[in-house]
Fold:
Amino acid sequence: MELAIDLDGLEGTMLAGVRLIAFFMVAPPFSYKAFPATAKLILALGLAVGVAPRVTAGYTSLDTGPFLVALVTQLGVGLVLGFLVYLVFSAVQSAGALIDLFGGFTLAQAYDPQSQVNGAQFTRLFQMAALALLFASGGYQLIVAGIVRSFDAVPLVDGTGHVGTMAFGGVAGLLVAALSQMFLATLQIAGPLVVVLFLADVGLGLLTRVAPALNAFQMGFPIKIGLTVIFAGALFMALPSVVSSLTGDAVQAITGRG
Structure:
């Protein structure tokens, strides 16, 4: 009895697994430190085996030098795609940081080693809520489907039989677009509350000019904290639709359709 092993397919599957492992180490929600590295490795290898018949079609074994280049290339592609997803979802964390800044919560900053976020209350609250919503809404499944479809945008083997790569100009364009989208989404999420807090500061300043003896800025801290808690509650209720929209943007970014 002979056991035939397709070495070409096995090598291509390994390269696909490297891209998937690098992606899951960087992209949320899989980058959360509470998820064991072993689980990420098993998930990546399982997906690599599942997509192997499609992504390794036409792949032929490489020599040592070209194989090492292909290995580094797939590692870079996975890290870039994971970083694109990270940038898109950083909008929620940045919105929380803006609320903390204008609401006066920045003095209570702390570092969360699980999510690797350094921020005050709303920064960490919005980050944890976004991660929870990704799993509760099934958004993580769309991200997994997106990284699988990325093999169509950046295949293991191009039309000439060479290992597929991402052009530097294309990577730079994707990063700039993702960064712009992050800033825009941050302003859209936290903008209304920031305007309210700014108007509260303006009102307190005018009150100080009219009646200096009242020392209105001393009352500003509890007033701004109260406004932040009230309006942030309404903002928190809008997070499910925000996370759903950001998930769509992340999938478009990693599949090359953004």
